[in-house]
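Collaborator request log, item 7. Partner lab (contact: R.S.) asked for a structural prediction of HTTM-like domain-containing protein to inform their binding assays.
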Amino acid sequence: MLTGYFKKLWSASRRTSPWSVSVGLARTLMALATLGTLLASPATALFRPAVGDPVAPRCTGLAEASFFCVGSGPLELYKWGAIAVLAVVASGWRPRVMGVLHVWVTWSLVASAIIVDGGDQVNANMALLLLPWTLTDGRKWHWTRVEAPTAPTAGYALACGLALVAWTAARAQVALIYLDASIGKMFVKEWMDGTAVYYWFTHSTFGAPMWLRGVILPIVHNGVTVALVSWGTIVLEFFLAIALFLDRRWQRALFPMGLALHVGILFVHGLTSFSTTMCGVLLLYIGPRELELSAVWGRWREVLARRRHPPVLTPPVA
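Returned to partner:
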């Protein structure tokens, strides 16, 4: 199975470059997620003493190399420095350079901050796994489409191989995230009896906002619908986990379902950073490929062109 998978990857790389706009967009979403966390949180909230960590930020062990532990300036200044780095990463400029800084900043937040969520950890892992992809990406902007050469050199073949391995490792990580989420729920009583969504949606802290409860409450107060949503979440996450090995048609069908899941989490639970991160990694995992994105963009350009310059109808010649 794996041999056939890598043969398909290599065959695809001979038709189109592995340094795609779609992966670039995924990197942008992940960078924006971390950037949003830093923008919305004062440095005193992210970096503060806690039990077992009397000094903030955490700068012991490997964390000594953290971006937030270099020098002795005010933490707010370091926070804005990290925001600036992430803004450049999100812009898509020089992936080869900014990929390294992206790893440093996302890892530093996880290593030195007291309050981090699963999205921050996923971001740090994905930035690291994609590092060979960014280091071999010679584009000025990751929005630029690169055509595969007709006669690839040995250097291109090596760079292409490294990029494909990094991309595959990142996708395998995403598959494991969904597999863990799906299997883990099977050991929780509320998920198995179909009532978990009721408790999460009506939770006083993490539940649905008041403006959404008019839609949510009829669903969770009905035994059939609440069970379908609870079990449906487990089933969807399991299919997303195995999507790595499914046919492209299945992936196209699962992609909007996964997006709906994470957008739903954003609106119901307010987990903006986590949801943005997961939308980014889902795009990298089973989202539209380069040629598909370019085809969609091409159709949009045709529609816009027709609206700006509608065809002039001439009467038939008598």
